């Protein structure tokens, strides 16, 4: 059968790569794809982004089903359009995607359904937001309400930073346009972050492997926030006991809450968690955000660990039978290291030739994100360029394998962290 993956990032490359491993899958189209999907023999880029043109292509080529990677087409209603055309597509509807496309909607939803999250207030008036921030004090978190390509969150350690963030988002020339016309101001939560991603069919839930990413640009989780500079799976932080709590206190209430609200949730659901210190049964557990798709870069190590036929899992999700599905996970650890362009995250430089790539092996794959093929030359085309992802018997060995491949990968101005996975190492729960 033939499949379609919508998107152009590292998440979509990893998803398409995994689907292409299925003996049942003849070809995976990626719309619009990137330089990496363009070079893969089992993948084919499709230079289409218009929903109507995609629907016409899917009908003409008899695509078995479509999977949506990024949030923007979900928020725009691509799932609604495909379903109206009688086509199989995995992802949330436009209404359900509000869990990500509106921070205010998500916060109100969590409060309404008793899902633990940070205290918050929403503002459209900058003066009112500034007054609230002064009353609350710092540290404090300021978020643009809408989609802002991962750049709409400011974790302000000082009052001046928070006030500047409000002016940046709500000022006359707001940085995020309509996405920032409303801001959510949240209490600052301390602890350790983890990513918890599941698949939903409207009623049933299938958890994916646990993972943790590194949001900050620089080693030691310092520097500006980014879309993610690396990730690893599994996350030792999420013990079996904590996993059960997340399912019981967060995931099931979210899926059941959407159904009660008349918006059954289908698709990938990502809960960004803040986990406090202490014994698993008593440590604080709160939702920082919901995303309506797979995380990036968490997808890359997660997909590298999938051993079973992922196309069968997706068909169960489309058929409403996720309760009958299982995923066979590689017991080893996967570590993904992001290589970013010069100037990222504020002003990433584009067009640098990628002069060397580590060869892909069974246990180490370079997933492309911001790359493009230009007259036969692979060049950078975005902020996060590549995610070098490796599997090994321990976090330390996976880390070493990934960095060995990173050292074989060259383009001018490349930026990468040298400590991806340090939290798992520090936890002392995995040893060579």
TrEMBL record:
Transmembrane segments: none annotated. The keyword Ligase applies. Residues 107-319 form the ATP-grasp domain. This is Phosphoribosylamine--glycine ligase. Gene3D superfamilies: 3.40.50.20, ATP-grasp fold, A domain, ATP-grasp fold, B domain, Phosphoribosylglycinamide synthetase, C-terminal domain. NCBIfam families: purD. One of its GO terms (molecular function) is phosphoribosylamine-glycine ligase activity. Its cofactor is Mg(2+); Mn(2+). It comes from Castellaniella denitrificans. Keywords: ATP-binding, Ligase, Nucleotide-binding, Purine biosynthesis. It catalyses: 5-phospho-beta-D-ribosylamine + glycine + ATP = N(1)-(5-phospho-beta-D-ribosyl)glycinamide + ADP + phosphate + H(+). Belongs to the GARS family.
